[in-house]
Design goal:
Number of helices: 9
Number of domains: 2
Radius of gyration: 20 Å
Strand order of the largest sheet: 8-7-6-11-9-12-10
Strand content: 15-25%
Structural class: alpha/beta
CATH superfamily of the largest domain: SPOUT methyltransferase, trefoil knot domain
Distance between the termini: 43 Å
Largest sheet: 7 strands, parallel
Order of helices and strands: EHHEHEHEHEEHEHEHEEEEH
Oligomer: single chain
């Protein structure tokens, strides 16, 4: 197999364009997955790979990766060139171009016992990825991103989630359509507003089916959600603290809701 030695190679330039340009990812319906673990998670979640780039000399033992290499157009890249194109500074040895999925509300398969998370206008890919790791660990049924500001397939979201972003059914829609969807299915909507009548998160029973609604890092939730919420929840903080990180506050609420509904795996060891 011919070895690619120059970062100016046409296929590498196309791949790097997908790395850097959200508009290009949307236009082509393609995105980048870097790393063996992340690619394995993508394959298990039925994502289709269009092309694979391998660092020269690398051999993989995982059967899913080996099968993907055998069944996908694959290019070998010289080590020093691979380090130049990798966003992980050469820490990973494989990069794949994958096909995006549709993220419509109607694709979500929910029940009367579902526990989901709604993220309004999340901005920071690192926080989005971290939240998906927590949600996957807690076996959240779905995540809905409303009024998105960040491309779902941002490479940094995928990286910080370690590929867990592929594990959870996700829909992307406007606030209005999300509420209509939830109301039609009789979901309880629990928001994170700091109000006089807000209830402490640990003093509350999370009645299923329910949606935990969390706002952006910089602005929090918009007033839109205060008008449709069944209850507003608050996480107590020291007076000297301004706010909690989005993924941290989401994690606190997620695990409390999971615990209150006896949805935790008893045999799990952290």
């Amino acid at each position: 197999m011919k070895v690619i030695k120059s970062p100016k190679n046409l296929e590498l330039k196309k791949m790097l364009l997908l790395y850097k340009k959200p508009r290009e990812r949307k236009k082509q319906g393609l995105f980048i997955i870097e790393g063996e673990r992340e690619i394995i998670n993508g394959l298990k979640s039925k994502y289709i790979l269009e092309r694979i780039f391998l660092e020269e000399g690398i051999v993989f033992k995982n059967v899913n990766i080996k099968s993907a290499i055998n069944n996908t157009p694959t290019s070998v890249v010289e080590k020093k060139t691979f380090k130049r194109i990798s966003i992980r500074s050469g820490g990973e040895k494989i990069i794949a171009i994958a096909r995006s999925k549709s993220h419509q509300l109607k694709t979500l398969k929910l029940s009367r016992k579902s526990l989901i998370v709604v993220l309004e206008e999340p901005e920071k890919p690192g926080n989005i990825g971290a939240l998906y790791r927590t949600a996957a660990a807690a076996k959240i049924d779905a995540i809905i991103i409303s009024n998105p500001k960040t491309d779902f397939y941002n490479p940094n979201s995928i990286r910080s989630s370690l590929g867990d972003i592929f594990k959870i059914p996700t829909a992307i829609e406007s606030n209005e359509n999300v509420v209509s969807f939830l109301k039609k299915r009789e979901f309880n909507i629990y928001t994170t507003f700091i109000k006089v009548d807000s209830v402490r998160y640990d003093k509350f029973d999370y009645q299923l089916p329910c949606a935990l609604v969390i706002g952006s890092e910089s602005e929090g939730l918009s007033n839109f959600w205060s008008k449709v919420a069944n209850e507003n929840l608050v996480i107590p903080m020291a007076k000297t603290s301004n706010s909690l990180n989005l993924s941290v506050s989401a994690g606190i609420l997620i695990y409390e809701a999971v615990r209150k509904n006896n949805k935790l795996d008893k045999n799990t060891i952290v």
